[in-house]
Write a structure and sequence with these properties.
Order of helices and strands: HHEEHHHEHEHHEHEHHE
Strand order of the largest sheet: 4-5-6-3-7
Largest sheet: 5 strands, parallel
Mean pLDDT: 81
Oligomer: single chain
Number of strands: 7
Structural class: alpha/beta
Shape: globular
Low-confidence stretches: 20-28
Length: about 260
Amino acid sequence: EDDELMGAWNSAKEAWAAEGLANGPPSESFETLLARMATYGVPKAGPIEHRPCLRCPTMLPMPARICEPCAIKEANERHTQHILSTVPQAFHWASFTSPGLLLARVQNKAAVVLARESLDEPRVVLTGRAGDGKTSLLVAMLRAWDERRYRDELGRFSTSWRLGRSRLRHGLGEGEPDEVRFALRTALLALDDIGSEGRVPNGSATFDVIFDRHESSKPTWVTTAMSVADMRDLYGDGFTRRIFEHARIIDCAPQAP
């Protein structure tokens, strides 16, 4: 079925390309494009044959292969898969829909509540020591952001260390590595563990990403175990101000009994 679905998608793209469109009309969302894929090419007159949707018993006029509700569900599933493809496997469980598991990892209940209330904040900083659950809470926030109403935008998870490693291993004169390019342009960046990158010979990728996203007013959520003073020593005052100034600070350290 997946092969047939992708075949339908590719056929629709070929038809749109013949009309001078790359991936469908630019004003339409990804979900709408998939819905159009479901009915594109159905004749407007004459006898029409029907066959069942690939995902449910709904009968559709040929050559449609998937109904609109199933097309939207398929789009949402693929969107979620994209988000999770950037998240380490060990944190795929993290979600506000599993409060018991989340509170077992993030023992500061107030931090969980505040994080859930911060999905519209353009800048969030999750602080705490190693083991306080900062990464788990960051992933839960990213998934909740994706599930709410932002299906036309893509969020992405990355780490300071991953950004630094990708630039260090990337050839000179070849532009930015994919990890950095995606971090620069994604609608929402969830950047984990600022400070783990350290100082690298080719410059700080984390530094460049934070400055660029701040300048273009793109939402950026981060975690760090660093104090303000330590961050200032590593990255400088300008970087530190762009992290903490006007940001919602959420302390993930366990609350005193």
